[in-house]
Amino acid sequence: MDSGASRLETAYLRETPAPTLPPPALSSGALGWTRKNLFSGPISSVFTLLTIAFAAWTLPGLVRYFILDAVWRADDGAACRAPGAGACWAYIGQKFPFFMYGSYPREWVWRVDVTFVVGAALIVWLLAPKLRGKQVAAFLFFVAFPVLGFVLLSGWEAVGLPKVGTDLWGGVLVSLVVSAVGIVVSLPGGVLLAMGRRSRLPMVRMASVVFIEVVRGVPLITVLFMANFMLPLFVPDNWSPDRLVRPLIGVSLFASAYMAEVVRGGLQAMPKGQFEGAMALGLGYGRMMRLVVLPQALTKVIPGIVNTFIGLFKDTTLVAIVGIYDFLRTVDTARLDPLWAGPSISTTGYVFAAMFYFIFCFGMSRYSQYMERELSKDRQR
Predict the structure, then answer these.
(1) Domain for residue 88, yes or no?
(2) How many Cβ atoms from other residues are within 10 Å of residue 96's Cβ?
(3) DSSP 3-state percent helix, strand, coil across the chain (nearest 5)
(4) Which of 256, 95, 233 is closest to 187 using CA atoms?
(5) Domain boundary among 134, 169, 204
(6) What is the pLDDT of residues 344-377, one digit of tens each?
(7) Does residue 210 sit in the same domain as residue 352?
(8) Which of the four pLDDT bands, split at 50, 70 and 90, describes residue 300?
(9) Single pTM value for the model
(10) For residue 364, how far is the Cα from the chain centroid?
(11) ∠ CA 149-356-353 to the nearest 5 degrees?
């Protein structure tokens, strides 16, 4: 009797695993993502509905103005001034070379294009984590590329490249040059200033503190004016810096002061055990900072570093105050052409400028987030 009951009980036990059931429809796929991110609660649902209502109210008009009623081809602004005309993209097409190169001689713009292509390739090589040879890429970008860019952009008669004065540079060329120089100089400059502010040598610490606080205590416009008008007073006339070099120096010093505080925050966030462990291994101050402390400190403040870079890129528009034709200044100047005067034409130019700055700033922001995720994966592994 007992054996029969035992056989009866075991007959109901499953010998193979039960098949895996799909997740509920409301928690997977597009429907699950929508529920989790857009309708996760009452407040989220209200804001989602308000956003949808706002988009339904504004998007049709924007699509009609910028696409459907837009003027795509025209020889002048007459068509853009017609009643009911939308955005004047023909104006962007006609003035695009001026927006890109300013008054740079048109027969030599290939030199600017080569500089852009080489610089972009080296930046991709440096920033793509999966590409190898970073030391070679760093040498080419920080040593060889500046020399190549200077020769191509400024000219060198010995190699058959006529001189092109910086007074003819403008547009995207100037904006990228100013922002690239400021970004490249500000990070090592900020690291040195941050280390100087934490130094045990009183004079080094005091000099760093004074520089950082003075520069951060005045607007960038003030620094640009001082660099433009006061730098020539400290050197002989024949050594006076170029009109473009002056704002480059001002922007670099300004960005370095702000970067110093970002880096100092990362250094202060480092546990004391990292310093003690490095010293216990017999590492000197220089090797300790280079191999142990700075890599971890800079990783902790990647958002702050990129935020400083983004602010610097947008602040390049202020060089127009000292007579430099950056991208926004070329857009503002081109709209004064009598052939292309009109309200919709000016609006289109400024929208195009906003798109330019947004693409670059958004790209830097997304890359910083990508690097944070990659570094987080490395730490977990």
Answers:
(1) no
(2) 14
(3) 75, 0, 20
(4) 256
(5) 169
(6) 888 899 999 999 999 999 999 998 888 888 777 7
(7) yes
(8) confident
(9) 0.82
(10) 4
(11) 115
